[in-house]
Specification:
This protein has helices at residues 18-25, 45-56, 76-84, 101-110, 125-128, 164-171; strands at residues 91-96, 116-123, 133-142, 147-150, 160-163, 174-176, 181-182, 184-190. It is of the alpha+beta class. It has a single domain (10-63, 70-190), classed as Phytochelatin synthase, N-terminal domain (Cathepsin B, Chain A, Alpha-Beta Complex). Strands 1-8-2-3-4-5 form a 6-stranded antiparallel beta sheet, with helices on both faces. A two-stranded antiparallel sheet has the order 6-7. A hairpin with a 4-residue loop joins strand 6 (174-176) and strand 7 (181-182). Helix 4 crosses helix 6 (164-171). The longest helix has 12 residues, at 45-56. The mean pLDDT is 93.
């Protein structure tokens, strides 16, 4: 499914509500992302998202932490594989495909725990009624409101809030038609 019948999330009152955004930025992990790097002429969303994750871990990083060129489309599996080369121990990274809203909520709750970081791979089309695949870090979860805090690496969008249901819909889109693989989350976790 590429296009939702629901209105664009830009019309939802929570999308960039100043008070809710302030609360989201105050979440334990979200604070570690400030200032947020935006993608630019040397790196697009996947590498820039990982650069933000690394910086949230206290690792100095430019917009492209990968050894390969930063201006290329990347699948979730590629982001995970190349992240594994640059995340410091004892961090590890794996792909998670939360196919239900409840499974996604479980991951979103962890996004407020300092032992986890997430990069979401989603299609913009179900959310904004246009656009393609995109990667952005998840800064946290306002559980009472059921809102994920998406730290969009595209400065034209800026950070925004979206319901777990709509984010799940956008992540459960096919990313690779040849394999049928869907988008999902890159989950970074501390191993102890």
């Amino acid at each position: 499914m590429l296009r939702s019948t629901a209105p664009s999330i830009r019309t939802h009152p929570a999308w960039q509500h100043p008070e809710l955004l302030a609360r989201a930025w105050a979440l334990p992990v979200a604070r570690r992302y400030a200032p947020l790097l935006s993608q630019g002429v040397t790196s697009i969303c996947g590498p820039t998202s990982v650069a933000n994750v690394l910086r949230s871990m206290g690792v100095s990083s430019g917009k492209n932490p990968f050894q390969r060129f930063g201006l290329r489309a990347m699948s979730l599996n590629q982001v995970v594989a190349e992240s594994a080369e640059v995340v410091p121990p004892p961090w590890r990274v794996e792909a998670v495909r939360a196919t239900t809203v409840e499974a996604l909520r479980t991951e979103l709750r962890r996004s407020n725990d300092d032992r986890y970081r997430y990069v979401s791979n989603f299609s913009r089309a179900p959310l904004f009624h246009g656009g393609g695949g995109h990667h952005s870090p998840i800064g946290g979860y306002l559980e009472a409101e059921d809102l994920a805090f998406v730290l969009d690496t595209n400065a034209g969008y800026g950070p925004w809030l979206v319901s777990a249901e709509r984010l799940c819909e956008a992540m459960n889109t096919t990313a690779d038609w040849s394999t049928g693989m869907t988008r999902g989350l890159a989950r970074y976790s501390l191993t102890t």
